[in-house]
Design goal:
Layout: H1 3-29, E1 39-48, E2 51-62, H2 66-96, H3 105-121, H4 126-188, H5 193-209, E3 212-216, E4 222-226, E5 231-233, E6 240-241, E7 263-264, E8 267-268, H6 277-311, E9 323-325, E10 337-341, E11 344-350, E12 356-361, H7 376-388, E13 398-401, E14 407-410, E15 417-423, E16 436-440, E17 449-452, H8 454-458, E18 464-465, E19 472-474, E20 478-479, E21 490-496, H9 497-502, E22 506-512, H10 518-527, E23 535-542, E24 545-552, E25 558-562, H11 567-572, E26 575-576, H12 581-584, E27 586-587, H13 589-593, E28 604-606, E29 611-613, H14 620-630, E30 633-635, E31 644-646, H15 648-688, H16 692-727
Antiparallel strand pairs: 1-2, 3-4, 4-5, 6-7, 7-8, 9-14, 10-16, 11-12, 11-15, 13-14, 16-17, 18-27, 19-24, 19-26, 20-24, 21-22, 21-25, 23-24, 28-29, 30-31
């Protein structure tokens, strides 16, 4: 070997050792840098004309296991999903509590039952009357708070989605910029390892938020896309977008178009997101929390309807009732007709002593003289005529449908009260039995809905009230893939305030055929040109099933009826929507203002006089209320709860219990998935991370190599000096 070749080899060794030291020093300096991967120095021998000519840097490579890295990112997405889910469940639990906690809805309902039980033993005690009202206020407030929490969390989830999309756009912008730099480095032969580390950090961050897939192109850049194949970053980043709502109500839904989608460019990917924090937020907003809302609404609806059914049978004597307005709203009382069957409803006027002044059955030709099939307005007029004729002090009494569409009764005196009683026969004083009231909404001479109890139908003595939602109808809970079981086609009519005002009544009709799915019925409604812009139908997911929702876009009162029967509407379970009932449930303000008006007893027949009598100590209604609240009640399927017959307390406890179970499962799954993620990250760290002991060992090797190369150069220099001296 010539001295020149030896010197060249030594210099290359010195230069290569220096490069190795640079790599090692960078590894050591970045031992705690997020996303930094250990760089491996790869030397290679230099061969000139078949002879060794030293060493040179072949490459600096990232010590990364790409398969392990992908598994780690998948695990990060799952942890992001479960962590967000767990966080929301904890917030739900803070409000819902546990079935055993004093503030839980099940315990509040239990206290309501206890207060009515106590009222049974002391119906005349003012403090107990107030306690029975306040227990209802507490129960309604508990339901309202739970519902408001659910909707607040849905709004928060929607806002968090918007914020997360902003983060993803920032990371995609970083990836695109790094792609350009890496591609340039590939084409010019420059090192790009540190740039790739930074790109991996951005990919990791996106993985926390969204399930992504990616592949590396030949120029070193990466193409990023979602698990369903939607491109997020290629030559340029795709802008993602989501606009959060400023207000969320129980009726708000993504399926109904209320929530905006998550868009990648112009493509809505909301339903195709499989994992990550955004998936958890979408599921909470659109599935989990609406399911809870549906369960709360079912509890509130059953509580309201069944307690009102009993409470409306009673009276508050000795407190006089002489001025009362019902809660039912009639869209067109001049045309809507009523038919009574199955029992005999009576109206009784009584004095301050509780004794009957006058009474009449509604259908008594010698009394009120209402004829089945006549209008609501005429019923009110007949009652007014009869009342005014019973006593001179009742000459100015009014009974009419007021401007709000409600039945309003004002006797015009404080010395006469009014009470209502449904009896099983026309024999005065026969056993109590709720009358069946069939109402013809669209004046086609066919009953459209049937309700129980005269006072209950008009809402004259309600215990619980909710604002009427007459612009939206929902079907009953139906399984996915449900088809109508009717045997022949049915014609469904749609009526609103505008059509009633024009005298046309029906806007238009659609036909429901045997075997139609909810989606097909929805499409028929939305395709009708006369309904477009006024009425919209949607299929709303709920639990393992769904509901058909039909709503008036302008907020007008909406009536949906069937020509020639009710079988199609009954099969669908289509009725005024109960959505949001739990948020608006309240004790009748009349009772809140004066708790002595709470129903405690009912009209009884005095066998000695043959007249009705109200007694101060009568407690039969308080007893019925206590029995209702302690016994099994009927609940339809809602959310993830099946239809059942249990106590109100047990149903409330089941809502909380199901939420607690889901929260516990989410916490357990989060722990398992977090352990898996940490295990994968540990392996990744062991594989790609910087180990100081290894770096120090390599440092010593390169230090010795550097020193040896320097010694070769020094020795070669001395040999050159000797050679020069010999020549001279």
């Amino acid at each position: 070997m010539s001295l020149n070749l030896a010197l060249t080899s030594a210099i290359s060794g010195l230069s290569t050792a220096q490069a190795g030291l640079d790599v090692i020093s960078s590894n050591i300096a970045n031992v705690n840098t997020e996303g930094y991967t250990r760089k491996l120095f790869v030397p290679e021998s230099v061969v000139l004309a078949g002879n060794g000519a030293g060493v040179q840097l072949a490459d600096i490579i990232r010590n990364v296991d790409q398969n392990l890295l992908k598994d780690t990112r998948n695990a990060r997405s799952e942890v992001g999903l479960l962590a967000s889910t767990n966080s929301y469940y904890r917030r739900v639990q803070d409000t819902f509590g546990t079935p055993q906690s004093n503030s839980s809805i099940s315990n509040q309902l239990n206290r309501l039952q206890q207060e009515f039980s106590t009222l049974t033993t002391s119906p005349e005690t003012v403090s107990q009357q107030l306690a029975a009202v306040q227990a209802g206020v507490a129960a309604a407030s508990g339901l309202a708070n739970m519902s408001k929490t659910v909707q607040t969390l849905r709004l928060n989830a929607d806002r968090e989605i918007e914020a997360a999309i902003g983060e993803i756009n920032s990371y995609l912008g970083n990836i695109s910029a790094l792609n350009d730099q890496i591609a340039f480095g590939y084409s010019t032969g420059r090192q790009t390892e540190d740039l790739e580390d930074k790109r991996d950090v951005a990919l990791n961050k996106i993985s926390d938020l969204l399930d992504i897939r990616y592949f590396q192109n030949s120029n070193g850049s990466v193409t990023v896309f979602t698990s369903d194949g939607t491109t997020l970053c290629d030559s340029q980043p795709v802008k993602m977008s989501h606009v959060a709502l400023t207000l969320v109500s129980p009726t708000s839904s993504y399926a109904g178009g209320d929530f905006n989608g998550v868009f990648a460019g112009v493509r809505d990917i909301t339903t195709s997101i499989r994992s990550g924090r955004i998936k958890a937020l979408v599921d909470m907003r659109d599935n989990t929390l609406p399911d809870m809302q549906a369960q709360l609404d079912q509890l509130a609806k059953s509580l309201k309807e069944q307690t009102n059914q009993v409470h409306n049978r009673g009276s508050s004597f000795p407190t006089m009732i002489n001025n009362v307005t019902g809660s039912r709203i009639f869209a067109d009382s001049a045309q809507q007709t009523l038919t009574f069957s199955g029992a005999e409803p009576s109206i009784v006027l009584y004095g301050a002593d509780g004794k009957e002044i006058a009474s009449s059955r509604l259908l008594d030709t010698l009394g009120i003289n209402f004829t089945n099939g006549d209008t609501v307005d005429n019923l009110a007029a007949n009652i007014q005529t009869w009342v005014q004729a019973q006593d001179t002090q009742l000459a100015n009494a009014t009974v009419a449908i007021n401007s709000d569409g409600k039945l309003a009764i004002n006797l015009g005196t404080d010395t006469v009260g009014i009470a209502f009683r449904d009896e099983e026969s026309a024999i005065k004083g026969s056993g109590q039995k709720d009358v069946q009231i069939a109402i013809d909404f669209d004046a086609d001479l066919q009953a459209d809905k049937t309700y129980s109890g005269f006072s209950n139908f008009f809402g004259l003595n309600d215990y619980f009230t909710t604002p009427a939602n007459l612009s939206q109808w929902d079907s009953a809970f139906k399984p996915v893939g449900y088809t109508t079981g009717i045997v022949s086609s049915a014609t469904i009519n749609f009526t609103d305030d505008t059509s009633l005002g024009s005298g046309v009544n029906t806007i238009t009709s659609i036909t429901i055929d045997p075997g139609d799915t909810l989606e097909e019925i929805r499409d028929k409604i939305n395709a009708d040109s006369l309904l477009q812009g006024r009425i919209t139908a949607d299929v709303i997911p709920e639990g393992s099933g769904q509901r058909l929702r039909i709503q008036h876009n302008l907020g007008e009162k909406l009536l949906i009826t069937q020509q020639g029967g009710t079988n199609a509407l009954d099969t669908l379970g289509l009725d005024f929507s109960m959505t949001g009932t739990s948020q608006t449930l309240a004790v009748n303000q009349t009772l809140v203002d004066d708790s002595s008006k709470i129903s405690r007893g009912e009209l009884k027949l005095n066998p000695l006089t043959g007249n009705y009598l109200l007694a101060p100590g009568e407690n039969s209604i308080a007893s019925q209320m206590a029995a209702l609240l302690s016994g099994p009640a009927s609940f339809l399927a809602a959310g993830s709860l099946s239809g059942t017959n249990v106590t109100f307390q047990d149903y409330g406890a089941s809502i909380i219990s199901r939420s607690s179970t889901a929260a516990a499962a989410a916490e357990t799954n989060l722990k398992l998935q977090s352990d898996l993620k940490e295990s994968l990250e540990l392996k990744q760290s062991q594989s790609a991370g910087v180990n100081l002991d290894e770096e120090m060992s390599q440092l010593m090797i390169f230090q010795q190599s550097y020193a040896a190369s320097a010694k070769v150069i020094s020795t070669t220099s001395q040999l050159f000096d000797i050679l020069n001296d010999l020549i001279r």
